[in-house]
Amino acid sequence: MSRMLANLRKPLLNTNNGVYRRALASMTNLSPTLRKTILPNGFTVATEENPASQTATVGVWIDAGSRAENVQNNGSAHFLEHMAFKGTRTRSQRDLELQIENMGGHLNAYTSREQTVYYAKAFKYDVPQAVEILSDILQNSRLDLGAIERERDVILREQEEVEKQMEEVVFDHLHATAFQNESLGLTILGPKENIQSLTRDDLSNYIKTNYTGERMILVGAGGVDHDALVRLAEDHFGRLPTVLDASTSKSAMKKPVFTGAQFTLRDKTPQAHIAVAVEGASWTSPDYFPLLVTQSIIGSWDRSLGATGHVDSRLSAIMHNNQLANSFMSFNTSYKDTGLWGIYLVSENKDRINDLLQSTKREWARLSSSVTENEVERAKQQLKAGLLLGLDGSTPIAEDIGRQLLTSGARMSPKEVEEAVSSVSVNDVCRVASEYLSKNAAVVGIGAIDELPDFNRIQI
């Protein structure tokens, strides 16, 4: 392979990009392929093998996060993430730590609104042990009462740290505003009173309800063997129940209702922190990639990083030249059946918030009528770089496989993603901007927001 790459470098020196591209095209057959097997209980095994890799990432992706909770047990998924490493029926916490350390491995977990993930990174010959450990912590956690009480304080301290991060606070309020009375509007950590009151039964019931075969995927990436991983899954996860009852099935989940409303919280923060979002597209929507390109056109900008108005985003020039904001960040957050598309703005110029939002709304409106070919092409190149360069290493590949299979049942390869982005046209951007960005938005304003207008009533 190194000799082949050395030969491929020569056309570059001669700036013969056509030769180089054809050489790259001839290598596509070397690309790893996804293999997927579903066990009788609905448990899925998915792999992307790289025989040359000496290490691997294996993990269990669970189709349940805070969205699988209700007001009473909100915070359970995240609480369980903490409890998973506190000991099982056969291993103490110390035993778990020693086994992972002796493998030279790394064990981690995280919780999102729609998923909970437990994964291990290890040498490829330690994959069987890593899978057995994952199986043990997911199915045999002791949920010791003493450990639960100790972990309450840990999670409360974590919550205090999150509450100091304004971006986290704003986006939690944005979800609660956009998805009122919906489980998608709940926070991941849960409210303080829940953290203090969740019981062992609450946690155990969450496991019984959501840790079922049809909701779980064992993903392997890097130095893994698919057939061997299937046998490991049969041994360690084959006895998981398919589903508890019809009400807990994946198909029973209903699309949340989006609400265009406004939430404000005035405090002593010297800056205004504002998030504006319309309902966006789901992961599987045909509008997903056009909206991603549209988000990339708006872009992001931060005055503190020395950014001027001479960057790609037209909105950044407006913000910089008129001193309307300290920073802004466009976002496109997708879920299984809905999404949030919008912008997060921070400004210390509290007397010009109306101008700030009017400029933002005017730029959104422009995208539906006069976006240029150059803007779209530049946004597509930036987007492809961000999406594809992020798949560097076995862990991000495993995360990509797990997330895609949980949300759609299939995975788009990196090449398919590149082609999907490349196919987005100016007309596509104009269409989605017209369809999505003109609708009522959910708005959150925190801090110095006395002059915050009603975004949905701003005239442009």
Number of domains: 2
The CATH topology of the largest domain is: Cytochrome Bc1 Complex, Chain A, domain 1
Structural class: alpha+beta
Number of helices: 17
* Cα separation of the termini: 58 Å
Helix content: 40-55%
Radius of gyration: 24 Å
Strand order of the largest sheet: 1-2-6-3-5-4
Instruction: Quote the beta fraction.
Output: 15-25%
**Helix-strand pattern, N to C?**
HHEEEHHEEHHHHHEHEEHEHEEHHHHHE
Q: Mind describing the biggest β-sheet?
A: 6 strands, mixed
Number of strands: 12
CATH homology superfamily name of the largest domain:
Metalloenzyme, LuxS/M16 peptidase-like
Basic shape = globular
The CATH architecture name of the largest domain reads 2-Layer Sandwich
Kindly report the average pLDDT value. Answer: 91
